[in-house]
């Protein structure tokens, strides 16, 4: 199904906005501009049309004009009066810029100079026009065909006044002149919406923010294709229009991503399937209050979490990721949601790990992925439903990896002894001597009652002895403590999910938000 609608294209250089039409299909977003096209007859000059107007005793030239050099825009036809001289030619349109009047070039003329020239040009006036495809929105030109049947009007009256040339000028002839009508052989013209730019939605990304800042554009966003082609800044007349288009484009991008995942998964083994992938914004490390962000493409595939600067298109691209982490050793955490009552909800999934994040970020829909050695990546998505999908996808990818792996073993030490620590989906925790392989202790997941760590390498695990009910403390030292703690968290969460999936769903912060909205 194709969606169409009127929007504005904002030019950041000139600070002007131009009326455009958007056409959205399943695979492409197209930007259209209005233009005047020749539909029949021979047209020697496609860009310029030269039209003869006969001034009428009642109605004059039958048009109004706006603009002028003093406003840094050409003089354009702003009104055409039905059945009067300009309308009868069939060759003039609202939005036509006047290039010449009786052979005199007026491209650099002021509004008053053109008015004076047209009013004193005699009974027969020859004007050369060219349709102004990028008419600044401040001209407030109606977008439809001449007359009341216009399909869209830009709203309030323009600060630039219309000069009506439907009144008589200095006519020397008072007898009724023959009407200005098209000659049979002359070319016929129509105003039409023409495609000017097509943005493929496969792997496209959307941004509502001014580049690199936390400043949200008002009722505006930009769509960027995989090859970097941008729609430019699309502005909408109402917040509702903006939200509708954002949702529609985002849905089509997501659908295309699902198609790409299905294609990729045909070439992958069952244990190496893509669970989810898509664009996010990553907050750059060490940035000051300006909070610089950069687009990143994330993927959850097989046993790994990938971070790319550009999406993987071929199978070879997967080894070119900027970062690759084992899914058992990462921790997904939601930071912020923008609630209906305009307050922040800050969510902490796992309180056992010290988290030291700067939460002054002004963007909603933020999550972080904590990785080994206490490091983390901080991400933001554009829409709340994307956050819910990432939350669910990380959960699913991690649980699948835990069940596939079955167990993870880490080298550790205590008081100079080299030990091995195993987290096993079926058995729980086991610690054994790395040389003799003698098991020193073993506990089920349910026996772990608490833990504490020094934030560096040492951890204390508190287990309850099933017979004595006493708490036994086991101290261990790891090279990468964070990865081990994340792994313990992943295995316990997967174990709970396998026993009680409803409980895991009930803990979803993002989905609670989505349903409440």
TrEMBL record:
It holds the Pfam family PDZ. GO terms for cellular component: cytoskeleton; syntrophin complex. GO terms for molecular function: actin binding; structural molecule activity. CDD domains: PDZ_syntrophin-like (cd06801). Residues 143-160 have a biased composition (Low complexity). The keyword Cytoplasm applies. Residues 143-186 are annotated as: Disordered. SUPFAM superfamilies: PDZ domain-like (SSF50156), PH domain-like (SSF50729). Its main location: cytoplasm. Residues 50-133 form the PDZ domain. It is found in: Cytoplasm, Cytoskeleton. The keyword Cytoplasm applies. Keywords: Actin-binding, Cytoplasm, Cytoskeleton. Belongs to the syntrophin family. This is SNTG2 protein. It comes from Chloroceryle aenea (American pygmy kingfisher).
């Amino acid at each position: 199904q194709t969606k169409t609608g009127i929007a504005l294209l904002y030019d950041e250089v000139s600070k002007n906005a131009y009326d455009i039409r958007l056409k959205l299909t399943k695979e492409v977003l197209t930007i259209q501009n209005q233009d005047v096209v020749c539909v029949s007859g021979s047209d020697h000059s496609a860009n310029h049309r030269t039209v003869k107007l006969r001034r009428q005793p009642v109605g004059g030239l039958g048009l109004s004009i706006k603009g002028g050099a003093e406003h840094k825009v050409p003089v354009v036809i702003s009104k055409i009066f039905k059945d009067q001289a300009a309308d009868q030619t069939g060759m003039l349109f609202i939005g036509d810029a006047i290039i010449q009047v009786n052979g005199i070039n007026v491209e650099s003329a002021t509004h008053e100079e053109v008015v004076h020239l047209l009013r004193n040009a005699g009974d027969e006036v020859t004007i050369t026009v060219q349709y102004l495809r990028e008419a600044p929105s401040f001209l407030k030109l109606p977008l439809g065909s001449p007359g009341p049947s216009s399909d869209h009007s830009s709203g309030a009256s323009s600060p630039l006044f219309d000069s009506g040339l439907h009144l008589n000028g200095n006519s020397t002839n008072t007898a009724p002149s023959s009407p200005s009508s098209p000659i049979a052989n002359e070319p016929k013209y129509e105003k039409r919406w023409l495609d000017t730019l097509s943005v493929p939605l496969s792997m496209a990304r959307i941004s509502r923010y001014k580049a690199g800042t936390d400043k949200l554009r008002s009722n505006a966003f930009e769509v960027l294709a995989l090859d970097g082609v941008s729609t430019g800044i699309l502005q909408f007349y109402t917040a509702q229009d903006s939200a509708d288009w954002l949702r529609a484009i985002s849905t089509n991008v997501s659908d295309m991503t699902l198609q790409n995942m299905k294609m990729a998964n045909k070439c992958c083994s069952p244990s190496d399937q893509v669970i989810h992938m898509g664009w996010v914004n990553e907050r750059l490390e060490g940035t000051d209050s300006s909070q610089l962000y950069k687009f990143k493409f994330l993927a959850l595939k097989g046993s790994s979490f990938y971070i790319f600067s550009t999406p993987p298109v071929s199978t070879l691209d997967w080894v070119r990721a900027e970062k690759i982490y084992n899914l058992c050793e990462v921790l997904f955490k939601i930071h912020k949601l923008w609630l209906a009552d305009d307050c922040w909800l800050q969510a902490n999934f796992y309180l056992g790990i010290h988290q030291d994040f700067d939460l002054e970020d002004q963007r909603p829909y933020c999550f972080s992925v904590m990785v080994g050695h206490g490091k983390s990546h901080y991400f933001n998505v554009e829409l709340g439903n994307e956050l819910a999908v990432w939350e669910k996808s990380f959960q699913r990818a991690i649980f699948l990896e835990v069940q596939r792996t079955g167990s993870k073993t880490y080298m550790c030490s205590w008081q100079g002894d080299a030990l091995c620590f195993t987290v096993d989906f079926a058995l729980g925790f086991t610690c054994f001597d790395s040389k003799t392989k003698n098991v020193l202790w073993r506990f089920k997941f349910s026996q772990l009652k608490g833990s504490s760590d020094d934030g560096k390498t040492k951890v204390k695990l508190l287990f309850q002895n099933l017979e004595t009910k006493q708490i036994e403390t086991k101290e261990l030292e790891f090279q990468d403590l964070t990865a081990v703690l994340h792994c313990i968290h992943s295995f316990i969460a997967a174990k709970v999910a396998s026993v009680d999936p409803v409980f895991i769903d009930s803990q979803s912060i993002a989905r609670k938000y989505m349903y409440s909205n």
